[in-house]
Amino acid sequence: MAKITAFIFDLDGVITDTAEYHYLAWKQLADEEHIAFTRQDNDQLRGVSRRESLNRMLKGHPIDETTAQAWMERKNNYYLQHLKSITPNDCLPGIKSFLADARAAGLKIAVGSASKNAYEVLTRLEIIDLFEAVGDGYVVKNSKPAPDLFVWVAGRLGVHTEEAVVFEDAEAGVEAALNGGFHVVGIGHADVTRAHLVLREGLAQITAQDILTQLQRAT
Ligand code: B16
Ligand code: MG
Where is the domain boundary, 83, 105, 122? Predict the structure, then answer.
């Protein structure tokens, strides 16, 4: 196994939990447009791009491109209102000490998020300066499960994909990382079972060295 030199973190569901705000924003749009949309529907939007989220919310309901762009902008404006309430206390349990531990262990750390609002969220959490690279929803055309975003981040870090671990909470993100040849740690309770290592309770009770040791055993 190649020596692991970098950790790449997904944002929503790994570093913080913005899924509820995405839900509230899509729900407001759906209600205004008389489209049924439940929390279960929202689970299907985890980790996928804004455009793919709209397609899934519409469930085949046809709209033209101009309307699609306008609806995505409206949803994003509702989402941005919710983001105003984010503070440094909204990091998921243990993530700050895990990031500090990874850096102390000499690992490069970076973010790979499908969100076009990743800089805004990381700035509000007051952790943006910790990362050597941030890949967001603007840097590549093909979104997860295409590997492009994580490959772009690895390029910015100057590491090969087999030297990096991706931490992901969504099936699309796990597939993206596997497609790129990364090691993958699945976080949380969604379908992340194809990851090399699954941590249902997140990163609160584990060290960077534990991750390296467990991946060595698993791969
Ligand atoms: P935006 P991640 C993803 O973030 C969210 O999980 C997903 O629900 C959202 O649709 C996507 O970002 C795009 O977000 O509308 O802000 O560009 O998990 O990749 O960090
Ligand atoms: Mg995510």
Answer: 83
